[in-house]
TrEMBL record:
Belongs to the EMP24/GP25L family. SMART domains: EMP24_GP25L (SM01190). It comes from Mycteria americana (Wood stork). This is GOLD domain-containing protein. SUPFAM superfamilies: Supernatant protein factor (SPF), C-terminal domain (SSF101576). One of its GO terms (cellular component) is endoplasmic reticulum membrane. It comes from the Eukaryota. It is a single-pass type I membrane protein. It is found in: Endoplasmic reticulum membrane; Endoplasmic reticulum-Golgi intermediate compartment membrane; Golgi apparatus, cis-Golgi network membrane. Residues 48-63 have a biased composition (Pro residues). The chain crosses the membrane at residues 271-293. Residues 1-90 are annotated as: Disordered.
Length: 309
């Protein structure tokens, strides 16, 4: 039979009739003998501690990249390998994004280069003067003339266009900006003139954009094909049209900003001159008032000639 100790509740084994070592239980390996403490055989301090528990085997842990990190004895090394794998994956993703961005930039530059040929020019137009430009064009060719006055006077100018036969095909007076599209009917030299002869003292700055010809197709066989466009081709056409719209909008806002800046600088100059004039007038009036008040309190002395007579 087994019994429990009232002191600590430890399970004890039955002893032999002669008081020797306890009987072992069937199927249980006998434990080591009790050590004698400093107090003798009866002063033992309990059974000897057994061997330490065996360390659990390392467990592989999956990480991104197909590698495994073992927990347990290789903890620090496994963490370093995991961090290195994550950094390598991030670098690979960044390189892929950079390559995609470079391809998109190259496509945008290629689409920008497909615009129709043309000329942009900003020139000074003195007062009572006229400036003309000449361009030789083929028959049936389309051109577009856009112009705008940036600075000077009321921001207006006279413009007219003549064909090779001397016939006026476009004429506008005192226009701030306008656009004239036309398809040529005869081959020869066309003349574009801007006149400021109606102004006697206003110096002006004029911008014009002269576009010649139709835009070439984005794809070489786009005009002759009968099949539908693929998704990539449709995306290229859409991007090309969007870029043309962006370029036109940027040109418009750039000219508008230049015109508004000219007006602001002109207004600032007028305000500055008016302020300087008011300051000078105030200074002169102040001196005049002081002299006038001083004359009121100055005693007039009688003349010496009147006293002698």
């Amino acid at each position: 039979m087994t019994s429990r100790s009232r002191a600590d509740g430890i399970r004890t084994l039955p002893r032999r009739p002669d008081g020797s070592a306890p009987l072992p239980l069937p199927g249980v390996r006998p434990s080591a003998p009790r050590r004698s403490g400093p107090g003798g055989p009866g002063g033992g301090q309990g059974p000897c501690p057994g061997p330490p528990p065996a360390e659990a085997p390392p467990v592989p842990v999956p990480v991104p990249g197909g590698r495994h990190v073992r927990r347990g004895g290789a903890g620090r090394g496994g963490a370093e390998r995991s961090a290195a794998g994550m950094r390598a994956g991030m670098r690979a993703r960044m390189r892929a994004r950079m390559r995609a961005g470079m391809r998109a930039l190259a496509l945008a530059l290629a689409l920008c280069a497909l615009r129709a040929g043309g000329t942009e020019l900003t020139f000074e137009l003195p007062d009572s003067d006229k400036q003309c430009f000449h361009q030789e064009l083929e028959r049936g060719l389309k051109f577009t003339l856009d112009y705008q006055v940036i600075t000077g006077g009321h921001y207006d100018v006279d413009c007219y266009v003549e064909d090779p036969n001397g016939r006026t095909i476009y004429k506008e007076t005192k226009k701030q900006y306008d656009s004239f599209p036309h398809r040529t009917e005869v081959k020869g030299v066309y003349t574009f003139c801007f006149s400021n002869e109606f102004s006697t003292f206003s110096h002006k700055t004029v911008y014009f954009d002269f576009q010649v010809g139709d835009e070439p197709p984005i794809l070489p066989d786009m005009s002759n094909r009968v099949t539908a466009l693929t998704q990539m081709e449709s995306a290229c056409v859409t991007i090309h049209e969007a870029l043309n719209t962006v370029i036109d909008s940027q040109t418009h806002y750039r000219l508008r900003e230049a015109q508004d800046r000219s007006r602001a600088e002109d207004l600032n100059g007028r305000v500055s001159y008016w302020s300087v004039g008011e300051t000078l007038i105030l200074f002169v009036v102040s001196i005049g008032q002081v002299m006038l008040l001083k004359s009121f309190f100055t005693e007039k002395r009688p003349g010496s000639g009147g006293a002698g007579t």
